[in-house]
Amino acid sequence: DLDTARRELEEFIPHVRNISDNSIRKMAGRDLARFKQFKKQGIAVKFGRFSHKENNQIRKNIEQFLLITGIDSAEKLLFTSRYPADKDTINRLKADHLFCEKLSEGIPRPWRLIYYRARKMFDSNNYKGRYSTEEKEKLIKYQALHGNNWKKISQLMSRSNLSVAMKYSEIKSAANYGPWSKEEIQKLMHAVEEEIRKRIEKEDGNCLSSLEKSHREISIDRETLHDKLPWTEIAAKVGTRFWRQCKQKWTTILTNKMTKGQRLYRGIEGLQAKINLIKRLYEMKVEDKNEVDWEEVSHAVGDLPKPYVQAKFYKLKVSCVPLWQKKTFSEIIDYLFEEKLPELEEQL
Questions:
Q1: Which InterPro entries match (predicted)?
Q2: pLDDT tens-digit profile, the chain (348 residues)
Q3: Residues 6+ apart with CB under 8 A from 249
Q4: How many Cβ atoms from other residues are within 10 Å of residue 173's Cβ?
Q5: Using CA atoms, how far apart are residues 43 and 58, in angstroms rounded to an integer?
Q6: How many Cα neighbours within 13 Å face the side chain of 328?
Q7: Please, which residues have CB within 8 angstroms of residue 80's CB and are 6 or more apart in sequence?
Q8: Could you say which DSSP state residue 198 is in?
Q9: 138: buried, middle or exposed (CB in 10 Å: 19+, 13-18, 0-12)?
Q10: Which of the 8 DSSP states describes residue 338?
Q11: How many helices (DSSP H) and strands (DSSP E) are in the chain?
Q12: Distance between the two ends of the chain, CA-based, in angstroms?
């Protein structure tokens, strides 16, 4: 019963009313029993970024499934269509050995999100570096032929679905790389406001007329100003910048407004902010950056937007930690605390 399934899922997924009937049927089969089990254990269903622990659990689940079935690679398991000669055998093994169940074992998230994460982790077409001019031309040609069929285009280009979709978004926007004009900033601010209002009104579920909605004042928490905004849609409304530029510019605007235009990370205040940042991250004792409560860190540093603090941490890491790419998150924090912090305190 679709209504019953939707009602039961709503306990775990608040936005379930916006999910299609077909997806509800799949979630009722793949997720509902798991969610109930997690509830008995006192574990809440999670969304957002995957933690280091969850990524390791996905790797473990994949390795165990390969051992059970004898399939010789994660790529064959997760990208079966790339191997037409083995497709029928692999699909039969996946059905016989309950692939959906095994992949999601121990991870309190919707199966679909776990599957997409696994595909991203094990896709040999990921992380291939910058697009050449020839590749960009091919991408434009393939999109004209196949529309937004990113699965088909990714196969033709040997790049991941996400990579080709995001790169096309950047190309299509006819992005301007110079300083932002007043008109562009106004378009950006209007686009962000529109998306925030849309989100608030959907959550409120109020029945105000569209005229009242367009003029009323709204009260929102700070995180709503920068968290999980649909940047691809916002970039489309701006028209002259791609999504990453829009996100960075909005973070700058937000930071200037929240700090009343003060120049941060300069002089004594800058040193103190870096010291506070390192100390707070060290005190958290987390093993993975995805487990960091960046909102809490931003308060410790100086009541700044979360993306701004994340960007400053990245800059600190890259400029101060030798061979940081080969270190774990906790090793990076330990290095900053033991080596960089005394130096900063001495300068202060």
A1: Homeodomain-like_sf (IPR009057), SANT/Myb (IPR001005), TTF1-like (IPR053078)
A2: 778 888 888 888 777 776 777 778 888 888 888 888 888 998 888 877 788 888 899 999 999 999 999 998 898 899 888 888 888 999 999 999 999 889 999 999 888 889 988 988 887 776 667 788 888 889 988 988 888 888 889 888 888 787 888 788 777 755 566 788 899 999 999 998 888 888 777 666 554 444 444 445 555 566 667 667 888 788 878 888 877 788 888 888 887 777 665 555 567 877 888 888 888 888 888 777 777 877 788 777 776 777 778 888 888 888 888 888 777 888 888 999 999 899 988 988
A3: 180, 185, 188, 241
A4: 19
A5: 18
A6: 10
A7: 86, 87, 90, 91, 94
A8: H
A9: middle
A10: I
A11: 20, 0
A12: 65
Residue 272 tokens read as 């103190």
Q: In the block, which residue shows the tokens 């005229």?
A: 211
- Token pair 């109020």 is found at 206
Question: Can you read off the two tokens belonging to residue 102?
Answer: 């095994």
Residue ranges of domains in the chain, CATH in brackets: 2-122 (no CATH), 133-172 (1.10.10), 183-259 (no CATH), 267-347 (no CATH)
CA atoms of 246 and 189, how far apart (whole Å): 10
